């Protein structure tokens, strides 16, 4: 059996025996800088804009709702089951389908919708990344299949960066099957190094911070 | 140097369009890397490299422990780990699963590991359709070529070549605008994603403490490959292991910057299982195939095992004065550039292309940019030494074979054999024979070395045949 053969070869090569203990791995130096929320938001917005993403600051949930309503006017949209979208009244906007719990139905919706609307579990300020944790509230395909993605996030979810994320969430596997960081719109430069956005994922991304 | 290797190098050097394409593309990637790791952008860059090196060293030195920990954690979340010693075992596993599930269409995301074992060819040979979905990989799959570069597989092709290829293979009107070519690929591949039964990905990292596969990309095809079909299979070399999720804080900061000059690639996926209770989408089955394919062969060597620290960022290719002239397809295997020059001979055996470790000026630019600090020139020197030792061994073997063939011939010709016996007796030192002044066999060049470990009895003055006749 290859499993035992390979493990045996590895152990023989390394001079180790089965079940032999291992010293702790070298420590990773984690830096979580103290950055106030306004600074975090402006850094994050600058990063997202540098990647050709759009940003919007909404003072209240009602502002966020109005912004999204204007952004999707005349288009079809699918929204995730994130409670924050319901709180903002975005899930119930005209033209928005939400509350889908069947895989096939959601897939068909996402494959035809013009816009996918989600929240995000966290946002990383120093890279402008959305952290999407798959759950009954956030499906994977809403932020992936439609050509445009709008993420609406309360401002208290903005972290400084990767170090803080992995401090809050030392083992993402405990809480989800899939954690995805989204940093800007889908892109490629595979032909002649020419940048093209929206190759498989959304070519347009808009991040709305509420509060 | 094999004729093929030499010929490919000369062809590349003679093609001025290709020279320009390689030089421009690698130059751009190189400059972007330099900007993003500059000390005002990332003051802790050198410290991160040191940490990454220490983490990889620790993991490789205790690899069996982390493989087992990884396996336990994947299984704790309902997934399955399969070990494969080579490409045949990877293909057998996929084929068996496909048969059991009645699967026909496979979507694949870019993976050097599956390139290594020709997985697409093996699957297609058995009647499955296996489609590459990264734009560059899709193009080279249509062209039946190998990736030109670890992170930019179709670097060598122009928009006009892509236009011809799409027209020929996809039956679409000729289109030379790159945005529109991308849109064509998007719509063809979108249908594949939605119809596929199985998604096969590679892995950038395997996180032992989480049982998770980590994948980085810019297009979204990896997310689709791992989310849309009902089955996700990740195929990864055993050396992709890291101990904990937290270590990603080090590796992710280095990988995007070193590869393409991005702080993070557009998508970073951390996948640890099939969809869990209540999750609306995602696969129903999650498998990780851990591939050996020659990796355990280079573990025993303390000096060279650092070759397994590589995170496949491609920075060494972009900076290498040799790669930038001879390009990716001159290299004899899927891995090109400085990293290809050290892992190809170790995975495949040095006889695969013995001149490969010599195709370097040892300038050291590669190890300066390596995010995990692999001392590539040192490994190249050790491989050169291995090649030379093998050549010497080989040369000796050839002489020995020749000598034994001559001896066998003599043994099957009785008259000649007898004559040779008489000559030997006549020349034997101290005999009263008629030949004088011939050096003893143990003093003759190559024979001396051979005889230093063997006894050669002195030739008798009268042979057995002679005694028999005179009896």
Structure description:
- Chain A contains six helices and twelve strands.
- The mean pLDDT of chain A is 97.
- Chain A is globular and about 65 Å long.
- A six-stranded parallel β-sheet of chain A has the order 1-12-7-4-2-3. In chain A, strands 8-5-6-9 form a four-stranded mixed β-sheet.
- With 211 residues, chain A is of the alpha/beta class.
- Chain A is 28% helix and 22% strand.
- Chain A has a single domain, classed as NagB/RpiA/CoA transferase-like (Rossmann fold, 3-Layer(aba) Sandwich), CATH 3.40.50.10420.
- Chain A starts with a helix and ends with a strand.
- Chain B has 471 residues and is of the alpha/beta class.
- Chain B folds into two domains: 3-306, NagB/RpiA/CoA transferase-like (Rossmann fold, 3-Layer(aba) Sandwich); 413-469, no CATH class.
- Helices cover 51% and strands 10% of the residues of chain B.
- Chain B contains 20 helices and ten strands.
- In chain B, the strands form two sheets. Chain B has a six-stranded parallel β-sheet, sandwiched between helices. Chain B has a four-stranded mixed β-sheet with strand order 8-5-6-9.
- The radius of gyration of chain B is 29 Å and the shape is elongated.
- Classes of the chains: A alpha/beta (211), B alpha/beta (471).
- The interface between A and B is large, with 79 and 100 residues.
Category by helix and strand content of chain A: alpha/beta
Averaged pLDDT of chain B: 92
How far do the termini of chain A sit from each other? 58 Å
Derived from helix and strand composition plus strand pairing, the structural class of chain B reads: alpha/beta
Distance between the termini of chain B: 61 Å
Q: What is the top-level CATH class of the largest domain in chain B?
A: Alpha Beta
What is the CATH superfamily of chain A? NagB/RpiA/CoA transferase-like
CATH topology group of chain A: Rossmann fold
Q: What does the radius of gyration of chain A come to?
A: 21 Å
Chain pair with largest interface? A-B, 79 and 100 residues
Shape verdict of chain B: elongated
């Amino acid at each position: 059996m290859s499993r035992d053969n390979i493990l045996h070869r590895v152990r023989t090569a390394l001079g180790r025996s089965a079940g032999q203990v291992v010293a702790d791995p070298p420590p990773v130096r984690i830096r979580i800088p103290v950055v106030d929320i306004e600074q975090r938001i402006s850094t994050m917005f600058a990063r997202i804009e540098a990647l050709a993403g759009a940003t919007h600051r909404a003072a209240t949930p009602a502002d966020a709702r109005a912004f999204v309503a204007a952004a999707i006017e005349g288009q079809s949209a699918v929204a995730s089951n994130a409670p924050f979208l319901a709180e903002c009244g975005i899930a119930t906007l005209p033209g928005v389908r939400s509350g889908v719990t069947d895989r096939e139905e959601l897939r068909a919706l996402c494959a035809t919708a013009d816009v996918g609307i989600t929240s995000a579990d966290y946002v990383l300020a120093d890279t402008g990344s959305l952290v999407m944790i798959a759950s009954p509230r956030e499906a994977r395909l809403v932020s992936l299949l439609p050509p445009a993605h709008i993420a609406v996030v309360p401002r208290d979810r903005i972290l400084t960066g990767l170090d803080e994320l992995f401090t809050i969430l030392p083992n993402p596997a405990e809480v989800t099957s899939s954690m995805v960081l989204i940093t800007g719109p889908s892109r490629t430069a595979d032909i002649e190094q020419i940048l093209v956005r929206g190759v498989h994922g959304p070519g347009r991304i808009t991040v709305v911070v509420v509060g | 140097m094999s004729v093929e290797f030499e010929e490919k190098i000369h062809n590349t050097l003679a093609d001025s369009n290709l020279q320009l394409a390689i030089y421009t593309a690698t130059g751009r990637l190189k400059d972007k890397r330099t900007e993003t790791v500059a000390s005002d952008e990332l003051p802790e860059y050198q410290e991160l490299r040191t940490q990454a090196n220490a983490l990889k060293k620790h993991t490789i030195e205790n690899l069996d422990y982390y493989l087992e920990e990884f396996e336990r954690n994947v299984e704790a979340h309902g997934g399955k780990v399969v070990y494969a010693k080579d490409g045949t075992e990877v293909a057998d596993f996929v084929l068996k699963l496909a048969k059991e599930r009645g699967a026909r269409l496979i979507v694949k995301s870019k993976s050097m590991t599956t390139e290594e074992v020709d997985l697409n060819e093996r699957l297609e040979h058995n009647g499955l359709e296996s489609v590459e979905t990264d734009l560059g990989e899709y193009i080279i799959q249509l062209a039946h070529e190998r990736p030109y570069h670890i992170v930019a597989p179709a670097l060598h092709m122009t928009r006009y070549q892509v236009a011809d290829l799409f027209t020929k293979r996809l039956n679409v009107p000729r289109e030379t605008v790159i945005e529109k070519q991308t849109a064509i690929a998007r719509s063809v591949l979108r249908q594949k994603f939605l119809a596929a039964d199985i998604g096969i990905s590679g892995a950038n990292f395997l996180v032992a403490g989480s049982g998770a596969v980590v994948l980085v990309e810019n297009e979204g095809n990896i997310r689709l490959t791992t989310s849309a079909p009902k089955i996700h299979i990740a195929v990864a070399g055993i050396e992709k292991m890291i101990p904990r999720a937290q270590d990603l804080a080090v590796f992710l900061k280095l990988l995007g910057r070193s590869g393409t000059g991005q702080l993070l690639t557009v998508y970073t996926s951390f996948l640890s299982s099939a969809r869990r209770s209540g999750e609306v989408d995602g696969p129903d089955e999650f498998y990780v195939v851990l591939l050996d394919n020659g990796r355990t062969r280079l573990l025993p060597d303390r000096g060279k095992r650092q070759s397994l620290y590589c995170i496949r960022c491609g920075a060494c290719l972009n900076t290498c004065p040799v790669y930038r002239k001879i390009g990716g397809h001159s290299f004899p295997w899927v891995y090109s550039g400085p990293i290809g020059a050290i892992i190809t001979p170790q995975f495949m055996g040095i006889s695969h292309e013995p001149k490969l470790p010599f195709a370097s000026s040892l300038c050291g630019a590669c190890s300066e940019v390596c995010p995990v600090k692999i001392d590539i020139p040192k490994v190249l020197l050790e491989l050169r030494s291995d090649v030379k030792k093998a050549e010497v061994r080989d040369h000796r073997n050839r002489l020995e074979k020749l000598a034994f063939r001559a001896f066998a011939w003599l043994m099957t010709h009785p008259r000649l054999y007898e004559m040779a016996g008489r000559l030997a007796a006549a020349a034997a030192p101290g005999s009263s024979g008629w030949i004088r002044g011939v050096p003893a066999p143990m003093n003759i060049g190559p024979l001396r070395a051979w005889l230093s470990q063997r006894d050669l009895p002195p030739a008798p003055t009268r042979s057995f045949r002679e005694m028999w006749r005179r009896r």
